[in-house]
Amino acid sequence: MNPSIQISLNQTIRKFKMIEPLETILVCVSGGKDSVTLLHLLHEMRKEWQIKLAIAHVNHKLRGKASDLDEAFVKHLAQKFKTPFLTTSVSVKEIAKSRKISIEEAARGARYQFFEQAAERIGAQKIALGHTQDDQAETVLMRLVTGTGLKGLQAVRPKRKLGDACLIRPLIEISRDEINSFVKKNSLSFREDKSNSSHLFLRNRIRKQLIPLLERSFNPQVKRVLARLPHLLDADLAFLEETANLFYRRLAHEKSSGEIAFARKPFEQLKPAIQYRLIGHAIRQLSGAEFDFEHWNKFLDGLASKTRTRVQLPRQLVASMSRDGVRISGPSRLRTSFHYLIFPGMKLFIPEINATVNCELVLKRPRPIKKSDLSFEILDCSSLTFPLEITGRRQGDRFQPFGQMLPMKLKKFLINRRIPEEERDRLPIARLSGKIVWIGGVGFADPFKVTSQTKQCIRLSCMHGNCTV
């Protein structure tokens, strides 16, 4: 064995806390130089670390007989090392065609799915992959060429979760030249994938054309410099993500299953880097999509506008900005329609707007107070007959707000109260013979106010979510 590469491997494992004693490591072996080297190195250190090894291989069925020979080669290695062998065959071309994705994406997805399943089957705590320092440098360049943000520049992570296990990359600080030297010195057999020489793939063009140009003309150590960049970013990005998560928990309000809102003033006080992550988090939660640079620029333009603005986001999501809030929601829908009846002593959950209306009988007339909490209102029971209807707003609705002598258009009232357009169709409205008695969270009608003659009251309140259980 080459002692220097073994020392580097041990240093990397300790630095990133990749392996603990007594663990089972599933080593993913394609048959190429990198994964074969990883297997030999881990096999050499198994007694020192008191670890158990197993080997996993995925036959992608992409190169006909050559793919089957790869599988047979890896199986022979498992027999040689007396190591459990787990394998599967996957028609990657069919997956790519059915899902309308690239061959590379389909192959990667199939591999990781199998590795997770195989690790669970044998109880492996770690899944070891053979990515090297060169792979890291190539990935950074690929992300730069095709466009990415700071998160994308983290490229190949040394360690990350996959199901109940962790993916680890013990060779991530070892160069391909060191691998080649190790293979030659130890006369190791391996399988050569001819597709690695094809200029059809971007990664291969970067490896064979761009990196040699950068080494010749700019920096002979460019691979080492590029591979170091993700590690330098890790600490800063971890801090940003933790900070963004803190603000998300504090500021994000799920208005319904299809909308997430932020109060505008505290949102605008945040730094753009945190704003970006809050909106990105909301987009992922609502659709699973990623927030790209083009949409971010449009969002910033909308945020800078002092008028009501709507900005298109990925997956048909929309960012709506008003004076009071920033809302991320799905495609516009027809006005929410619902109709329920409510009696005193009853809690009513309205799934269409994900809210609960509570109707309570109050035996004593409350003392007059200046109230700022609009989640509930106290009304004169003698002015009401039950049941009350609970509906959404309707075309042509008119409403006589508390303190006014004449009714007005409900739409104008809601605009005056600065109720965002996106929220108006999700307001529960209590009606008596069609007339509006109360608008949940907004106000009540003057004819039903408590007076000095009131002997019994009704308390109507509105809460987010299902509060009936």
Task: Describe the fold and architecture.
By secondary structure, the protein is an alpha+beta fold. The protein folds into 3 domains: 229 residues, Rossmann fold (3-Layer(aba) Sandwich), CATH 3.40.50.620; 78 residues, Uridine Diphospho-n-acetylenolpyruvylglucosamine Reductase, domain 3 (2-Layer Sandwich), CATH 3.30.465.60; 126 residues, Phenylalanyl-tRNA Synthetase, Chain B, domain 3 (3-Layer(bba) Sandwich), CATH 3.50.40. It has 14 helices and 22 strands. A hairpin with a 2-residue loop joins β19 and β20. α4 packs across α5 and α6 packs across α8. The radius of gyration is 31 Å and the shape is elongated. The N and C termini lie far apart (66 Å).
Summary keywords:
469 residues, alpha+beta, Rossmann fold, Uridine Diphospho-n-acetylenolpyruvylglucosamine Reductase, domain 3, Phenylalanyl-tRNA Synthetase, Chain B, domain 3, 3 domains, five-stranded antiparallel sheet, 14 helices, 22 strands
CATH class of the largest domain: Alpha Beta
Low-pLDDT runs of 5+ residues are: none
Structural class: alpha+beta
Query: How many strands, which pairing sense, and closed or not: the largest β-sheet?
Result: 6 strands, mixed
Alpha plus pi helix count: 14
